[in-house]
Amino acid sequence: MVIEIYPHIFKNEIPLPNNPLKAINNYIIVSESKNLIIDTGFNTAECLTELMNGLRELNIDLNKTDLLITHMHVDHSGLAHVLKDYGVRVVYFSQIDGEISNQTSQRDVFFKSLNQLLGFQSDFTIKFGKEFGVRRSGTLDFSPLYEGDILVIGDYCFEVVDIPGHTPGHIGLYERQHKLFFCGDHILDEITPNITFWGFEQDILATYFKSLNKVYDYEIDYLFPAHRRIITDHHKRINELLHHHEERLNEILGILKEGRKTPIDVAASMHWDIGHKKWSDFPSSQMWFASGEALSHLECLVHRGLVERTNKDGVLLYGLK
Q1: Domain span holding position 108
Q2: Name one GO molecular function term (predicted).
Q3: Would the pTM of this model clear 0.90, i.e. be above it?
Q4: Quick check: is 275 in a domain?
Q5: Using an 8 Å Cβ cutoff, are 295 and 316 in contact?
């Protein structure tokens, strides 16, 4: 269903069947000269149908429409190739996430090596069901956006804001005059964005905290997230997210009192609100997401000097200092 949430700004809630995210908020900003679509949904027939139905309902001419992808995850970028084929003029991406998204072979090597670091057995495979869609082969021709770039759509002047954390190159759009912010998965209501491990060269959780505090200082009346409800008190929600992750860090410190553990062992001992009582009941994809988030928190504790990391036969082990 397409609804106008602000003058000339529409939200098309696209269902994501059999996925805990439930739906993605696809935003469409319209004007006489050009339009802007923000995020797409998975590359599935269901998402494509809902997306195109919304565009037709608004009489969107793709030949005068641009597409912005807030970050690389396939629920946001899955249909970018398709929309480019259908005629959108430009696909915008951050330089960082756009390059990672296109570097499929390097990304696959990284994730394969990550499985061993996390502590998964060599025969562990991540099974993504058909609800995640098909990842389109080939590189996406995109135009990179950087902090401070301006996109003008009708009466709106959007500033590009770097908000890394959920991914290394996550971006948002800030409309200063109207106090609007399109934040992708940076800040979500009801659920918390997954903050996973992206390499030892940075403390990605601390990076996420920095991005949250950056947005905290903005004047925002309406924060438009990619999932769940529109947020009208971003200060309150940011404080809740910061508190959530500090609780996570303390939970992990408590788990490590039992002795040194692999990231997957830590994840198996943590509390998760995904509808499965036992770790063994988790789908492989959720095990992987949870273990990646456990690792980002463990690395944050290493950077804080509270935990030490060792490597035993290619598997990471963490323990209290």
Answers
A1: 2-248
A2: hydrolase activity
A3: yes
A4: no
A5: yes
